[in-house]
Amino acid sequence: MTIQRGSASKNHSKSRSKSSARKVNRSKSGRWLWFLLGMGGIAVVSATAGALLSLSSTPLMQANLSADEAAVFDGDRISGGGLRFSELTRPVNILVMGMSVLPPDVQNAPEETKSLGYLPQINSFDGLSDVMLLIRFDPETKKLVMLSIPRDTRVEIEGHGKKKINSANVQGGPALTAKTVSNLLDGVGIDRYIRINILGVAKLIDALGGVTVYVPRDMKYQDDSQHLYINLKKGKQHLNGDQALQMLRFRHDENGDIGRIQRQQMVMRALMDQALNPTTMTQLPNILNVVKEHIDTNLSVEELVALVGFGARTNRSNMLQLMLPGRFSEQGEYNASYWIPNSDRIATTMAQYFDIQSSDQQQTVDPTYLRVAIQDSTGSDNTNLQPLIRSLQKAGYRNVYIAKSSGEPLEVTHIVAQKGDGNSAESIRNTLGFGEVRVESTGNLYSDISIQVGKDWLEQKSLFEQPISY
Fold it and tell me: 312: buried, middle or exposed (CB in 10 Å: 19+, 13-18, 0-12)?
């Protein structure tokens, strides 16, 4: 722990000699203050380390991987030693899977579930992976990149043919899933995995104090066969674990699972904004105690702390949320609905964000070919966006269109790099002269860049309405 030391005497260098005694006392009190703060910091770190050591006797890994399966993951150390246990020492790729498991998904379902008359969620890791993320923690670039992989992605699963990627866990657990993801993403290395059961997600969010998020629409859905009841109203609100789970699971809109991924990114962004801070590390032992029975991972507790520590120190502008490039399958194209990966754009994404060498160097995209969606997020029903559109068109952006807004009123305009093209988003921001760039997939699904126009546009609009001189 590094403490910046100060000296009270420096702030009073011009004091007269008659105040020297007072100055000495202040200097001493200053030293004592820093000493006490330093001891307090050391005590916090020591207490956290002690609590973690007690946890380390209870392994977080619940899968029994064979030697070959374990070898799929890079076993090299990722964190420092001693009091540097919370520091990452190299870039790390973590495969995260959210498991939603019903009794029919496993061979030996708990006896108590057989006479309930409905299918409850059970605490298992053997079913389909309902959520899949590849997260890169990079201490060299100081970035945290999250790539969402739709569960319906059509892939080759080794030994099982072409299937949806969420079935890889059923066929071969985390090792086969990691192999499948690596093959899909141009051979990217995967260092560790985390599987968390859906029953643990609600407990995790409750342990973090809930989450404040904007619910983009009324969500109502009922499935008596699973006792799944979703009932959320549109608007900004503080959700407990069960309510947040309802928002995460809802997918009954025009974009199906892809719309659900967008809402997952909203919740993750909100959780990171409020939960990733230095105090989270001190709470981590208690949080792990709450959810450890619902987690399976080959991360050690010390490595998990290093990841949380990195997240707490990462600037929010360096937290990027991407989605696997692709498209919906067309009706009748296959015997099931799929998300069809776009291999060329995957190569670009992996080269830019995951340090995978590519023969195609990333080039600046010609504005003429960019699809730019304008979404009114001012909170008004009759905002005049035409001056903004005309300004973009005169700057060379020919494919500009109005798209439906998510509904959340924004104070500051978000220029969203929907497909991960942060350079083009930054160019648009420079053209407009206002707004903030976000690399995430929460904009219009069919756009390259989505401009979610906030209330700051109302202050800028008069400038755009002035005639442009040439």
Answer: middle
pLDDT at 26: 44
Phi first, then psi, for residue 356 (nearest 5°) are: -95, 125
Write the CB contacts of 454 (distance below 8 Å, at least 6 apart in sequence).
377, 378, 409, 410, 411, 412, 413, 414, 435
The residues near 310 (Cβ < 8 Å, ≥ 6 apart) are: 87, 88, 137, 139, 144
Q: b/e string for 356-387 if b means 16 or more Cβ within 10 A?
A: beeeeeeeeeebeebbbbbbbbbeeeebebeb
Q: How many Cα neighbours within 13 Å face the side chain of 355?
A: 15
Q: Identify the pLDDT of residue 55.
A: 55
Q: Which residues of the chain have pLDDT under 50?
A: 1-48, 57-58, 470
Extract the tokens encoding 39. 């001891």
* Tokens standing for residue 419: 């497909």
In this prediction, residue 10 carries a pLDDT of: 36
pLDDT tens by residue, 204-249: 999 988 999 999 889 999 988 888 899 999 999 999 999 999 999 8
> What is each CA distance from 274 to 6, 40, 185, 213, 265, in whole angstroms?
31, 24, 31, 11, 14
d(CA 470, CA 468): 7
- Tell me, what's the pLDDT at 116? 86
φ/ψ of residue 87, rounded to 5:
-115, 130
Strand pairing partners for 157?
161
CB atoms within 10 A of CB 133: 21
Decide: residue 104, CB within 10 A, 0-12 exposed, 13-18 middle, 19+ buried: exposed
Q: How do strand 371-376 and strand 92-99 relate by DSSP bridges?
A: unpaired
In sequence order, what DSSP letters do the residues of 217-280 get, joined into one string? S-EEEEETTTTEEEEE-SEEEEE-HHHHHHHHH---STTHHHHHHHHHHHHHHHHHHHH-SHHH
Contact 191, 74 (CB under 8 A): yes
pLDDT value at residue 45: 44
The 3 state secondary structure assigned to 57-74 is CCCCCCCCCCHHHHCCCC
Which candidate, 216, 220, 222, places its Cα nearest to that of 231? 220
Nearest to 128 by CA among 81, 78, 168: 168
Backbone dihedral angles phi then psi of residue 7, each to the nearest 5 degrees: -125, 125
Quick check: 298 and 65 in contact, CB under 8 A?
A: yes
Q: What is the DSSP string of 16-46?
A: -GGGHHHHHHHHHHHHHHHHHHHHHHHHHHH
